[in-house]
Structure formats: structure tokens, C-alpha cells
Amino acid sequence: MCGITARIGDDESLEDLLVSLKNLEYRGYDSAGIAVQNGTGIEINKCEGEVSELQAELSTADHDGPIGIGHTRWSTHGPPTDANAHPHTGCRGRVVAVHNGIIENYDVLREGLQARGHEFTSDTDTEVIPHLVEERLDAGFDAEAAFRDAIGELDGSYAIAMLIDGDPAVYATRNGSPLVVGVGEDANYLASDVPAFLEFTDRVVYLEDDDVAVITPDDYRITDATGSSVSRPVETVEWDPEDAEKGGYDHYMLKEIHEQPVALRQTIHGRIEGEDVILEDFPPGTFADVSRVQFIACGTSYHAGMYGEWLLSKWGIDANTFIASEYAAFPAPVDEETLVVGVTQSGETADTLEALKNARERGARTLALTNAIGSTAARTCDDALFIRAGPEIGVAATKTFSSQVATLVLLGERLVRDITGDPTDECRERLKALESLPEHVELVLDDSRAATISQRWLGDAGNFFIGRGNAYAVAREGALKFKEITYEHAEGFAAGELKHGPLALVTDETPVFAIGTGEHAKRLESNVREVQTRGAPVIAVAPRTATDLTDTADESLPVPATHPDLVAILANVQLQLIAYHAADELERSIDKPRNLAKSVTVE
Length: 603
Prior knowledge:
This protein has 18 helices and 26 strands. With 603 residues, the protein is α/β, with parallel strands linked by helices. α7 runs parallel beside α12, α7 (260-268) packs antiparallel against α13 (427-447) and α8 packs parallel to α12. The longest helix has 22 residues, at 399-420.
């Protein structure tokens, strides 16, 4: 869950490396470091803390050169310290490596290396890598052979980039963790994710598991696990580099909340024609042999999956949602008529990939619903459906949730038609409302009172989010967003479950956000009165037309009236703003919340 970057050119690399590291901080920010070949050796600079702290240290260091690697860390093995920051070296500093993932057998490898005289200076699993390579170089292996033989000893998931003193190349490989080569005009690049080098080149090559890449200033070469040369396509990324910048906003999260109208337009563009759903690569009848659907996902994507499950169940399709880590350990029954949909923004989430692999091996059909073209999920699943939300840098997912749900509405319509032969009830009204969703989100953003309400009702004893139907998924998502960036306690409940335990926690210091969609209104109103009786202030998040709920509540965050199946998406935008403004009031690190990273590529 760390960020790797490299620049391989004929001129100085430091500035580009630092830009790339800043672009990758959403993947980890416990510590950072770079290693650069400066003509007299490999200069290493690393420290605990954010990239800005590394940059301050570099202002007085002799650090520049044509070839370099960099790393920003999210700690797994060993605390975030200067010693544990990457890059790591062998005993003599000749071999320098950065690594993302987990080397599962590092303790055995480390014991063996120590027994053979190697000395270690960190607590990390990564440090075994340069020592293994160094041993092979001492034994007479050439650089690529030493690298390839060393990684053959590693068990686990990893992405690795390595420098060897005096060698004008970067050596790289991946197994379960992403790596992508950037093909530039004056230099080549390597990174865990495209945004790292997007402002330098938009031409990319996605590495596959077990690929070994040797990247030089004017070329690159890829071989497979056997050493045979392989060809990977060069793709052009359509993202604008400015999409990965703050653009005048104080935080990426706020920028991305406000990008939701654009993201939604991109998501639905060309996919609706009257009552017809047009999904690229999925002509009518594609899913005719599907009898059940399983969604697997983590975090925010799991809540989007819950939304999709609710839609399909409402439309008569057998559907369930599973937390990916649990599915991988305790898989649900599947057969050839089961469609397993991995909902994953990055397409690299380790638990989701493992669950998809499990389902595929047991005969299920798999589909990646993702934001990332070229991601592991997109390449390894039977099919891929892209949400087209554009790059998202903030750790707390915002615009990608909205685009995931909108895409699931479209996928659900197609599934129902293919499986039953008929469109869903209210299809025309729902699709028309979906086309209007970007404008409705703009209205929410223009008129929201979330900043005022978040200051007035920030709870000292926790914050509850309740809803029924698809609003339950959004209640869960609203609570997750709140706890992610405010560090305050928050829980999302199905409204009817309050009296089965959670009501014991309700006090006059427990704000309750009640999400109304227009359905089950009387029951939700009853739940609201239950908590008000215990003194809790209630903030209704509902259409302006839901006067029974908004009149009962102490405050309201209105959303435009639309089809009931889509109201919760608009309510979620209000809850994103509530979380953002509460975190800002508490002076939290909004884009880089403690202990969290954007793309979880370790299990």
C-alpha cells in the first residue's frame, strides 16, 4: 500500500521524482525517500514523515543525477522511522531497492542472510531484497540474473524497483501489487499508479504478475518468469494532468466532491438512449445465462455493492454483497451461472483480487467494476465495466462512490433485461432521473448548509446515520466517511435496528442523520421520534417534498426530489460535505487521514 516511483533519463531526475512522490502520497505518507545515481555512487535521502519533510532535507544535499527511484510508505513491517523508510540497501550500498507489498517469508530469508554475515539496519521485510541481490552479484551473476534469481526466493505480494551502482537501468517486477511503466520523450518512468507521472507522459505500459522490466533512459525491455521476452501494449491514458491537481481547493477531497457532476456525466455519457441501456462491450443478451449475482468489495466500494444488491433484489434478481476479505476466507457457493462483480475503484485492492481469483477458479464468471483501465482487476476478470470517474487523489472516496452506484444502476438494468427479457418497472423514469443526476448534485453543492450544521451538531458521544432500503447503504457510507477523516466515532445503522441495541447509546450528545428517500417514510419518521425521545438532535437528509420527515427533524439538509432509487446518491453528497466540514473544523488531515491509504494492495 506504498507508492513506488522511478525516473530513468540522461538529465537530472530529482525534481520529477519529488513531483511523482507528492502525486503518490495518497498511497502512503508515513515516511518517504529517494535514491539517485549522482555520478559518484548512489545518494540516498529518506526520513519519517511526509514528502515535504524529505524535500526540506534535500535542499542541502548533493542528491541529483539522471536515474533515481523513490518511495512513500504506509507502514506494515516496522514503525514509521527514518531507519524503516525506503529505499533500503545491502551491506555495501551497491544495491538499493524500494518495495510495496508483503514478503511473507522475510523472517526465514533474513535469518539465513544474517547467518551468512549480512547486517540489517531496519525492521522491514523489504531489506532482505537488496541483500539477496548483493549476494548473487558477489557470486558473479550479472545484474538482471541476480535480480531475477533473488525474487525467485520471495513469497507474498510485491512490487519492486531496484538500482545497482554504476548500472544505467532500473530493474522492476511485480506480483500482486501494481506497477506501470511510463514511456516519455526524454525519459522513462515507473510507478505504482499512473498519476505519479501523468504530467510527464500519458503513454503507459501495465506490467503483469511475474514480469521483469529493465528500464533504461531510451528504452525498456520486459520478460516473463521464464526470461522470455514479452510484449505489453502501450496505452494512452485519457486523464488530464490537471485532474490530479487541487485546482484552487483547500483539499483534494473538497475538489473531488465538487467534481461529482462532471464525473457522473462521464459515467453515463453514451450509455442511455431513451429506455435503452448501452454498455460498451456488453450487447443485449450478454448476461442471459446469469441466474445470481454476488458483489465483492471493501470499504466504500462495499457500500456501493450494497446499493447494487438492493436494486437487483428489488427487481427480482438473486443478489448478495460480501466483504472481500471474508469472501476470500469463506467463499459463498458459485456455479457457472453466477456473476461475481468485484467493485474496486483502483482495480488493485488485494482482498478483492483474491476473492475474484477464488470465484473464477471455482467456475464463476467475473466482472470488474472499476475506475482504472489497465488495472489488475480489469485485466484478470472475464469482463470489465469502467465507471469513468477520472482520477481520485483524496484517501476518502467521494466521486468514485457516486459513479460506482450510477454504473450499478445501468448494469442492473442490463442484467434484468438479459435475465428476464423485460425492462425494470419505472425504467424510463429512473433512467431519465439518472440523466438529471449531475444537475441535481450541482444543486446540492450550490445550496448545502452542511458547513453550518456540522459546526452546530458535532457530537461528543458519537454520530449516528440511519436509513432504510438503499439509504441504509448510504448511512453506512456516511458514517465511514465521517470516521475516516474526523477521527470521531460514527456508526451507520438500518433504521429499524435502532431498538435492537444501538438505542442504548443515544443521548442528547448523539446527532442522528436520518436519510429519507420517500419510501418507508412513516417508519423512518417513527425511528426519528424514538431517538428524539432520548434527547438526540436529528438532521433529516431528504427531498424537500418529504415534509413529514423534515418537519419532525431538528434540522434538515434538503436534496432535490427525484426518483426514489436515486435520492440516496444525493443524500450521500450532503453527508460527504458534513464529514468534510466537521474534519476541517477539527483541523484534521483531510486528504491524508491517519493510518489510512487510498489503495489497499496488501491483505
